[in-house]
Amino acid sequence: MGKIGRCVPKDKPEPKKPDHSTSDMEKFLHKKPATGSLAAAKMVLEDQEGWSQHAEEEDGSTIDSAEGQADSIAAPISRHFLQQALTEALSPLIQELKEIKADIRQIGHRVETLEHNQAAILPYIKAVSDNTAAFIDSLDNAYTMLEDQENRSRRKNLRIRGLSENVAAEALADTAIAIFGSLLGPDRAEEVQIERIHRALRPRPKDSENPRDVICGLLRYVDTAAIMTAARNKKEITFEGANISLYQDLAPSTLNKRRALRPLTDHLRYAKVPYKWLFPFGLTFAVGGRRCVIRIPSDLQAAWELLQTTPLDIPSWLPSAGLGSPLPELPEVQRWSLAPQRKKTASKLRDT
Fold first, then answer.
1. pLDDT per residue as tens digits for the range 184-231
2. Other C-beta atoms within 10 Å of 160: how many?
């Protein structure tokens, strides 16, 4: 009997076993590597190793920096670190503040020096102002004296106003004697002696304008005074149909002063208060038994108070008014009230 075994189908062939011959093994064991392929593979491997090493280094540095930041953030801030940081941050400001303090200290010293110099100059300025006011008063007095001398040299003269320009220069003396005769009488008029007579020294006016005044210089002041008294007592003087007025021959400066006081004289005439002109220049009147004398503009206040009326705007008639007004008074109270405060401020700046 035979052994029982697997049934092998007859139609399936059996697998062939590999045939490893001696020649194939020797070829595999003693196979020579290709030179080009090995060199290329070696370069690829070196590049990969270098890249991996560079990546590891970068990763290491990144990790180290991150760890350093984490350590710095996590570490507590010390007092010394804060003090050092603040010192570095504030050092420019401290330097600038030192420079500002030095400048302020210097300014305080300069202000104190200026105040000292100002205190030394103030008495000198006051003395100059007082001397200037005294010089102005002396100049006004000198002008007043010159004006009085000029008026004294004219005190014998008369001004005849309203005489027609048709009267010739040769007939002026006879015409003046005729006018004086209407005031004093024919016999008294014949005693009047005329030294000179002429028209006012200005161009001949047109027919539509007022005629020039006739200036008549008499030999004796007694005749002049008598004629002026008779002219004041007579309300109207006429000659050949023309109204004639007689005035004193005064200096131009005196006439300007009288024009300046015209508002006051108009008020006196309206109130029927008699007044009188003075020489040297002045005006006097009396109200209620009280007499007022006006010589300078400062006397006007008393005049308005005596008349019990509102003061009127009257320009100054002093000759020096055209040369410049006096210096104003120095506000010493305001200056010295601020000086102690400035000194305290300067001392505080020096202390800082």
1. 988 898 899 999 999 998 898 988 889 999 999 999 999 999 999 999
2. 23
Q: Give the pLDDT band (50/70/90) at residue 326.
A: low
Q: Between β-strands 275-278 and 282-287, what pairing exists: parallel, antiparallel or unpaired?
A: antiparallel
User: How many other CB atoms sit within 10 Å of the CB of residue 218?
Assistant: 23
Is 145 in contact with 280 (CB distance < 8 Å)?
yes
Contact 268, 261 (CB under 8 A): no
Phi, psi of 242 (to 5 degrees): -110, 140
Place 174 in a pLDDT band, splitting at 50, 70 and 90: very high
Write phi, then psi, for 331 (nearest 5 degrees).
Answer: -80, 75
Beta bridge partners of 58: none
Report d(CA 292, CA 275) in Å as an integer.
Answer: 10
Integer Cα distance of 257 and 346 in angstroms: 55
How many Å apart are CA 214 and CA 200, to the nearest integer? 6
- Specify the amino acid at residue 17: K
Which amino acid is it at 111? V
Euclidean distance between CA atoms 195 and 218, whole angstroms: 5
Q: How far is residue 209's CA from residue 207's CA, in Å, rounded to a whole number?
A: 6
- The amino acid sitting at 136 is I
Count of CB atoms situated within 10 Å of the CB of 111: 15
The amino acid present at 279, given as its one-letter code, is F
Contact 151, 251 (CB under 8 A): yes
Residue corresponding to tokens 């539509």? 208
Q: Among 278, 285, 279, 281, which Cα is nearest to 303's? A: 285
Residue 58's SS3 state is helix
DSSP 4-49: P-----SSSPPPPPP---HHHHHHHHTPPPPHHHHHHHHHHHHHHH
**pLDDT, tens digit (0-9, with 9 covering 90-100), for 295-325:** 888 888 888 888 888 888 787 777 776 665 5
